[in-house]
Design brief:
The structure is a homodimer of 193-residue chains.
Chain A (H helix, E strand, L loop, with lengths): L8 E3 L4 H9 L4 E3 L12 H19 L4 E11 L2 E3 L5 H11 L3 E12 L4 E13 L4 H9 L20 E6 L1 H4 L4 H9 L6
Parallel strand pairs in A: 1-2, 1-3
Antiparallel strand pairs in A: 3-4, 3-5, 5-6, 6-7
């Protein structure tokens, strides 16, 4: 897959999973991380887009002339909005909440062409249903360390895959970067993406 | 996650993705490959279960006393049933067929406790929708080599993730081993799986 565009993009995210997925897309990029505070209130659909915008804007200010891509992902289950767990106890609480139920994973995307100030956003949603989990399942999974650093305290591409009965929507969205939506967003800036 | 069962299982598959997914499940296993001919006719739902049974039976005959797990995966799109592509041309034909449409991924599972002759089977289905693909998309993806060796000529966990708009069902099923279904099948033999 050869791309004819000249500028590599700037990924405004420290997530190794987002880097991995962007690599799969064949997009040349470098990582510049912002220090945007992820703590915010509000409905998850608006929250993730707003946080993606803030991350993209913070990095665009430091990278004039670059095309910046940022993302923010949360898990919404009933009235609860789950980001990354604070500690193992918090991870266990989140997993107990998700067990045996459907939840939503939302990712907000924002791309900014810092050279001309153009900004585009997108939102992706995937529904995920977990199997019922025993206390032993949860304790065992938390002990692997995999939940830490992941929104909703699980990695669908890892061991938690065996707890996922079904999803509806983009699998890569659940990993933090909806590849099809990201590609469509970048294509607004250049058709060769 | 500690398991208390004694016997490791035997995975009757040469697929590195199935080994990876079984590793994520925390199941100790070794690989013994059968030489069952994958060429067969018939409806995909029956086909994959029958082929999984044949693979499991062939390996169980060589591993008396072991618990054997086998799987077979095909892609069904309209009337077409797609296994692994024969060559790059065949891969391009499959991808052109899948572009812009929903298709079904079926995996048949069979577990045999060779010590007592007990056999259990399961079937999992995931619907997958591809974005429309240009001839350039297809040629570029085939050139990466990723389609070879994969049923339906794509790897959802790889670059093809950006062509997948949505799925309905288990993501790991699309990779060849539905983790939740496999765990439930193995739990019929031992609750500690």
């Amino acid at each position: 897959m050869t791309h004819t565009f000249q500028r590599p993009i700037v990924l405004a995210s420290a997530s190794p999973r987002r880097s991995e997925l962007l690599t799969y897309m064949g997009v040349p990029f470098r990582v510049v991380v912002s220090d945007v505070d992820e703590g915010m209130e509000g409905p998850p659909q608006a929250l993730v887009v707003t946080l993606a915008q803030r991350k993209a804007q913070a990095v665009a200010a430091r990278c004039p002339g670059d095309l910046v891509l940022a993302a923010d992902t949360v898990v919404a289950c009933g009235d609860a909005v789950l980001g990354k767990p604070r500690d193992e106890e918090d991870a266990a609480r989140m997993l107990a909440l998700l067990a045996g139920r459907w939840h939503d994973v939302y990712t907000g995307l924002c791309a900014i062409d810092a050279a001309i100030g153009r900004q585009e956003t997108a939102l992706d949603r995937t529904r995920v249903r977990f199997l019922p989990l025993t206390a032993r399942d949860i304790a065992g999974y938390v002990a692997t360390g995999e939940p830490m650093g992941k929104a909703g305290a699980y990695a669908i591409q890892g061991r938690a895959g065996m707890y996922v009965q079904a999803i509806e929507g983009s699998p890569s969205n659940v990993m933090g970067l909806p590849m099809a939506a990201a590609r469509q967003l970048l294509q607004k800036f250049h058709p060769a993406f």
